[in-house]
Amino acid sequence: MSLAATSVHEGDEEAHYVDETLSILQSELREWFGVEFTFWSRESGDIVLGGAHPWVQGPLGTWLTAHVREISAPQVVAEHNIFALVAIPVADDRGRPCIAAAPVVTRDPTLADEVADDAAWLACDERQAMNWLRQQTPTPVAMLRRLVQAVGGKIEAEARSRRLEYEVAKISDSLASTYEEISLLYDVTQNLRISNSETELGDRALNRLAECIPAENLALYLAPVAKESEITYRARTEPQLLMRGDPILDLDQLELMFHDLHLGPGSGPVVVNRNKTAAPRWRFPSVRELMVAPLSEGDRLFGWLAAFNHREEKEFGTIEASLLNSVSAILGVHGCNIDLYRQQNELLASVVRALTSAIDAKDPYTCGHSDRVARISVRLAQELGCSAETVHTLYMAGLVHDIGKIGIADRVLRKPGRLTEAEFEHIKLHPELGYKILCDIKQLSDVLPVVLHHHEQWDGRGYPHGLAGEEIPFLARICAVADAYDAMSSDRPYRKGMPEEKVVAIFREGAGKQWDAEVVNAFFRALDDIRDISRRERAGLSLDVERWATPSVSTPLHA
Fold first, then answer.
1. Kindly report the CA angle at 86 between 81 and 87, in degrees rounded to 5?
2. Is residue 326 located within the same domain as residue 430?
3. Which of these, 405, 396, 363, lies nearest to 378 by C-alpha position?
4. Which domain holds residue 485?
5. Who contacts 19 (Cβ-Cβ below 8 Å, separation ≥6)?
6. Do the Cβ atoms of 127 and 61 come closer than 8 Å?
7. In this structure, are 243 and 389 located in the same domain?
């Protein structure tokens, strides 16, 4: 089902701007879902991009046009026999709302009538409907809903990030202060990287502000962004105070002053110039002059940037206030970007948790297997000197390495005894099934080689592709050892776990044959820790590996 983008008249710069943005989204959606999307304006109901396929002008397109204003969140709508309609709210860089929609195949038809009925909705004949069906891999409705939510969240986060970047550029363009002020803002903006924490950037900003603003004291108050019980990845759960100069107010006094001034995320910069005969209600006699600006983005408040007492006992003016506000705006954007990045990771963590729960629900006899394999893989990776990023990737891969078992028949997966040859061939499909389940989730692209190849063997006798030696991805070789250890040492309903002596003997015999000898050697070096991991049940273990994993003392060898 091919859709063509609408044409743009030469010289129509506005149309070209919108079309280019939506065209990029159309390409990304095509990659994620395997079909062409058409874009409707939520304001007018008109098609703004796409629309070449008959379904757009048929009953399905008519239905969507009538309901386009009602769709406010990514969702699967208009479910039929063999397809469902995916509808995702999007917007161009200028905020004009649209709906991206396309029909996606959800299952193979079992009756000819099903194709005939759905062909009518698609405004095509049965032959065209069957041709379209053959071009797609069916996506079950439940999985499609999860994919739609994940993709919708990603699009929303990226659009928000683009808006924030636009605000940073606009702020930078408006600066017309002294060389020192421009240099300060340049220095701060050059360090707007997700890898730089708010504390690191805040320290740098305070040091440069101390050179440009004649204040006795500067303070950066960073507000909490999450509750400890609600986070997977590290986030600020308590207020934090950074200061330059002699302290004038402590944390509690600062919070009380913000309250007295009725400050909020939209209050803008506040300047308070007082003399020694200040009003009696002012509860902070040590503060003569004050400037405060919020660290905010929209209605979200990330903290406050404040300057206290002019060094020459003068009043703070608009130039100082404008500079303070500019820096606070940049810090606010940075704080928002970091929190958006954390929220994206939290979304991915939720997806992984759901997938792991699905595995455990499918095969309760191996409940906890994926988690133990993930933790053992982490220990092996540390022993091999892998980087922190690689360790995290391997942990996520271990959690979902068996996700393909969702597609394995229960009678085979739960069989309390030896499998027949045909049953074993069936269960050997799970790596490729797992790859297909996860391949459209871009954030999990690094784990796909592990999911697909964790049953390959060093001598080439594994599956699904019979890779040998270093043809097998390195992380898959690590996971293979962790997977084999847990499978051999764990109790099952139909057998007890093997004695450790037998497991050790099997690994010694299989090093350089079934498994990578380097990984097996790491296994023996870390055996005490691995034995402890296999005996210890997971208790609310965070997906942020750095929060619980034992730091590796090895020198990093593998990126």
1. 140
2. no
3. 396
4. 363-547
5. 5, 6, 8, 48, 49
6. no
7. no
Chain length of the chain: 559
pLDDT digits (tens, 9 = 90+) for 370-409: 888 999 999 999 999 998 889 889 988 998 999 999 888 8
Cβ(510)–Cβ(457) below 8 Å: no
With tokens 């079992």, the residue in question is: 110
The reply to whether 160 falls in a domain is no
| Residue corresponding to tokens 């034995």 | 531
Evaluate whether 324 touches 209 at the Cβ level (below 8 Å).
yes
Residues 138 and 275 in one domain: no
Q: Which residues contact 237 (CB under 8 A, 6 or more apart)?
A: 224, 225, 226, 227, 228, 231
- Asked if residue 392 and residue 263 are part of one domain, the reply reads no
Q: Is the peptide bond before 74 cis (omega within 30 degrees of 0)?
A: no
Using CA atoms of 333, 334, 337, 342 in order, give the dihedral in degrees to the nearest 10.
-140
- pLDDT level of residue 457 (50, 70, 90 thresholds): very high
CA distance 26 to 151: 12
Closest CA to 101 of 150, 42, 154: 42
For the chain, report the end-to-end CA distance as a whole number of angstroms. Answer: 41
Three-state secondary-structure class, residue 48:
strand
Q: Is residue 164 part of a domain?
A: no
The CA-based angle 180-181-187, given to 5 degrees, is: 85
Stretch among 216-220, 289-293, 356-360 having the lowest mean pLDDT: 356-360
